[in-house]
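Aim 2, interim progress: modelling of the calcium ion-bound target.
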Amino acid sequence: MNKAVILAGGQGKRMKAEMPKPLFKVLGEPMLRWVISACEAAGLADICVVKGFKGEMIDEYLGGKYTTVLQAERLGTGHAVQQAIPFLEKDKSGNTLVLCGDAPFIDEETIRSSLEMHEKQNNAVTVITAELDEPFGYGRIIRTENGISGIVEQKDATDEQKAIKEVNSGAYWFRTADLVELLGKLDNNNAQGEYYLTDTISIAISEGKNAGAYKSDNADIIKGANDRKDLLELNNYARMAVIEKHLANGVEFTCTDGVVIERGVTIGVGTEILPNTIIRKNTTIGVNCKIGPNTVVENCKLGDDVNLHTVQAYEAEIESGVKIGPYVHIRPDSVIKSGTKIGDFVEIKNSVIGEKTAIAHLAYVGDSDIGKRVNIGCGTVTVNYDGIEKSRCVIGDNCFVGCNTNLIAPVKLGKAVYTAAGTTVTRDVPDYALAIDRGVMKINEGYTLRKLKTKLGK
Ligand code: UD1
Ligand code: CA
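Predicted structure of the complex, ligand included:
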């Protein structure tokens, strides 16, 4: 079976952080996740990650889903892959893809096509390469008339070799059985005193095995980050690539300032995304919506014709024709049914808001089930927490909840109930009733004048 080994031992000193470099994020996902996703998309399920610096953070992130091995000392890329020998030896029948965990843009197509060439040419090893205008720092591919003869690292290269623009991406296909054998033959006689994985190529050739190079026309597969500036560049690059994909699908952007859309997001035709809008994780958005400005949507499911203006919404379902904002916070596990309007300074949490209901301003609705065509007045609060436990409020269809109503949970309003403004509802209210809780209002004539007189003597 084919499998993958991902090198994730690097610290990335210039990042100035106590974190393995492959865990730095590009568009909200660690670079290591991008590499794993590409492997999985290409059908590689058996994955071994070689960890080094702060390896426990890699384990914590992967949550036991993949094999990991520790490279205790950083003695080179060949030494890193040697740590995976027990993983390779479990099944030597197929091929192994070796990748760098900090080059996030390796893609499914490159993985598949290079494997095809690797198998067709019956190679022991096939290196994935690309041409760079500025090849400085990378291993150069030495081509011969009928293939390649090896890879020369920057620090070991002659001036003539330094002029070569085809470079090693750091990704390779190996026949697994050959890889195990070749790893045993590496030495560290080179300018850096490291065990170079790249030496496997010249060794294979010297033993009469085939070695090849697959040149990708996608030079981005080489992109990595050595410092925060590089990481920002990767983010900018990925951000625009995602936006361009949506543009091609018929999504409208008049200005992309502050717009960040993660890879897992789907957006329907005719939807407009306005500035300062961040759409994260597996959010799906229907057609003809207007999202933004100043909006964050994370892991939400939005229907068609939804309008969000200055909204933060997390883990929620918002059905078609809903209009929300500005300054609204929709917290997890909320369902906002179609045709609902939610206006300024409203917070909704773990609640169902029925169809065509209006919550126009300044309200908190938590742990509640609200029916259809309800009007929630300004300042309404569902009092869902007594300091120990949370309870639910239920509000029936067609209720009119007056301004500044407190609903002390658990409590239920039946159908078409009115609550008078300022009422604190402490018991269930039957269908069609009015709940009113008020002292008798008094008017004390001339009060202000008397007060001024006694206080100021005037
Ligand atoms: C390596 C290649 C070079 C190629 C370049 C592509 C070798 C000898 N050279 O360069 O031909 O053009 O990648 O980026 O392989 N790593 C470990 N343990 C180690 C050393 C490295 O896990 O002991 C990991 C790094 O974290 C990184 C990857 O291997 O993910 C590549 O290492 P890096 O030092 O960045 O590459 P170079 O050796 O410069
Ligand atoms: Ca190195």
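The CA atoms of residues 68 and 216 lie 28 Å apart. The mean pLDDT is 97.
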